[in-house]
Structures are given as structure tokens and as C-alpha cells.
Lamin tail domain-containing protein
Amino acid sequence: MSLSIRSLAATAVAAVALVGAATLPATADGSHRHGHHNGHHGHGQRGGVEISEVQYNSRGIDSRFNRSLNGEWFTVRNDGRFPVQLRNHTVRDGRGHTYRFGWLRLRGGQEVTVHTGYGRDSGSRVYQDSPRHLYSNVRGSLTLRDDEGRRLDRCAWNRWDGGHKSC
């Protein structure tokens, strides 16, 4: 290959790489944070969707009453600027229980709380309709995945967190 053809080819490859890098969004709003937040979980790249907190031990004695069941919950937050559709996103605990979101759109800055027990779903609260407590009071974790199975976030806790974990 002649020197001028190699130079032309190298220039073309560099131009394509530059244009590609400029047009690929890292997130919906460019606010992706690398690494781990509070040392406990990583953040995903789709609009800044994250597990922001977990109430893994409801107050009082665990019972099968709905009030006790709904005292156990986690919150998913869109900390980006743009809306994110959560349909078919999943949150799985360390024991293998999986919650799958239905049709739910989170605006930038909006959050949804997912309760263990029964209730009527709204834009800010949804219910898993479980007849029993799901999360260990000793240690556990939740993993958020998008509709294609990519891990977006993880939050872990242990008994020294006092029943509540800000992720």
C-alpha cells in the first residue's frame, strides 16, 4: 500500500472515530457516574436509573399483615434529566425473587417506591403483591437490570444498617 493511501486511510479512520465518539450518548443526559457510589453499587448508563434506598426490615415484628409487608420496600430513582421507561426492567434480590416493572415512565428526578405487600399501583408507588416478607433482615442485595438484562445498579445491606439502607 502506498504512503498516500495509508495516510488517507488513517485520516478516514480517525475522522470516523471522532464523529462516532461525539454522537454516542453515554447516558440520556450525559450524567453517568463511573465507579461505585458509597462503595456499595455501580450506576448504570440508561438515564441515571438507580436503586436509591431499601427498607429491608419493616418496623416492629414481621407479620403477614399488609401494613407489615408494605413496610418493606425499595425505591428506584431516575437521577437524569430525561424520562426513562421502566417497562420490563427487573429488580432481583439475592434469594432469586424478581420484580418486573410494568408500563411505568419516570421523568427526570422522579422516583417510584416498590412495596412488598398489596396495594393499588400509582405513578409513585407500586406493589409486588407478596403474601410474605421478601428481604433478609441480616444481609442481602438488590440488582436492577434494564429490559435487555444489562445490570444498571446494585445495592447491598447487612444487619448493621439498622433495617434501612440509602444506596
